[in-house]
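S.,

As promised, the nicotinamide-adenine-dinucleotide run. Input:
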Amino acid sequence: MVAGIVAGRLAVVTGAGSGIGRATCQVLSREGATVIAADKNYEAALETIKTHTVLSSQSNGLAGHSAVELDVSDSKSVQKLLEKVRKQYKAPATIVVNSAGITRDNWLTKMSEEDYDAVLNVNLKGSFLVMQAFARAMVIASLPGSIINISSIIGKHGNKGQTNYSASKAGVIAMTRSAAIELGKMNIRVNAILPGYFKTPMVDTVPEKVIQGVLKMVPLARMGDPLEVAEVITFLASDKSSFITGAAIDVNGGL
Ligand code: NAD
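Predicted complex:
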């Protein structure tokens, strides 16, 4: 078994084919977890497993890492993932990281209903569906666990062109707190991370002028590396954070 702060644990990471999700798979596996990389883009999730994870030995009784295609906004797809985990690993995942997310930016006055729904469906409903399915499995198995939902600084402060995205991310913070209150007695902890600006494909779409403007407000004067937030996620997944639940943790260079 790979030694580490989450050794022998089974982790499901959504949005695992890119950015923060991919970095999270890397750090969780380095710290000994067996990782299920789930993404709408199966090839990208597979690439994460092949090139970014530390090989899991199977001595902890679990099968090795795996990649799965998942659309978090589709309850049938989430149930299919749950069933696959049950069959393949014969143990519930006790670490769940909701990192799948999208943006469809536009001014409030121009935003289509379709773009509003798309963002809410993936970022908020998707996190709900995955959290609900895997929390249920933990409760049934009477196992403690840790769920980490990736919100955003925008969920707290808002942003131009992001009424849909900010609403979804504020919803994730509120949902996290409610779930933490419900699940605390079962020792299932639920926390939200509010990243600032990280170098990922999602942020690559933001115009350089906007990024430069943001960086002027970041005391650490740079964007974050996805691995820096993955370390915090892994800490929250581990027993090192055993008395932290319902928290909304800023990881933003001081922005
Ligand atoms: P990214 O675009 O690099 O990766 C997102 C991944 O989610 C992609 O692999 C994509 O295929 C997957 N995905 C999209 N829709 C999906 C669906 N319906 N089902 C399953 N997978 C789906 O983005 P990122 O920068 O790594 O962002 C990860 C999370 O962090 C997102 O929730 C994002 O909102 C949040 N976040 C990112 C930043 C940042 O600076 N990068 C800042 C704040 C919050």
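The CA atoms of residues 70 and 81 lie 7 Å apart. The mean pLDDT is 95.

- D.
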